[in-house]
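Students often ask why we bother encoding 3D structure as a string. The short answer is that it lets us treat folding as translation between two languages. Here is a chain of 300 residues written in the first language.
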Amino acid sequence: MNTKVSLAGVELKNPVMTASGTFGSGAEYGEFVDLNRLGAVVTKGVANVPWEGNPTPRVAEVRGGMLNAIGLQNPGIDVFIKRDIPFLRQYDTRIIVNVCGKTREDYLEVAERLGDQPVDLLEINISCPNVKEGGIAFGQDPKAVEAITRAVKDRAKQPVIMKLSPNVTDIGETARAAEAGGADVISLINTLTGMKIDINRRTFALANKTGGMSGPAIKPIAVRMVYQAAQAVKLPIIGMGGIVDWEDALEFIMAGATAVSVGTANFFNPYATVEIVEGIQAFMKEQGVQDIQELIGAVR
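And here it is in the second language, the structure alphabet:
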């Protein structure tokens, strides 16, 4: 039974990985999860310099999920190279580095710094606000998506994954823009923009007012968008958004995702990723599926 998948020539032992920002860089989950069993670990976002993130409170629970406005807090590329890459290199899993930035130059600097590092793929988070364009996220304008994709591809040594925002009118158009810019892979969806009001304090639950909505409630939207993207482009897709168990993961795979990322589920079930790997294997055995390629894009 074959569960191996390929992303731009990089082979993963199975299609299950972590979602950026929900797993750190693996160390804090080491006592719960055997990282050797995962197809890949996707790191928390890494910037060219340390980011403090947003003021607190910056996490709020909502029905069916959570809102976060962490602000991509991270220690920066220097600490990441010195501390996190050596830790992950101990394990037999692929390393995908999530890259964030506030300007085009920020992304390019990180991509260049990672060029000679032993990491497998770069995932470019284009939901970051572009400070030079009035704070509008790179990923909300197809022309900006194509431009930032092309710029990163020109500098990156590793294959490039563009992580798409769902906060757009037409996800197919965004996916085609990433493909036109030379993306090797796309991943989606990032969080949906949401808000919660604390009625007792008569104020916003998050200091940032709005935050990224994730968790089980967004899964049907995410599956729909992955399907639409799969119909729009020929690139491999990493599907994510509300995956809690192996059945959820298989929905994304059948919609056209080559691999899946598990995010919010890690917070309430740190064993989720390994359980999903086992669940997919059990399903394939029960259904007599010899190769996971039979399931990828099974619905048309």
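Translate back mentally: The longest strand covers residues 94-99. Keep this in mind for the problem set.
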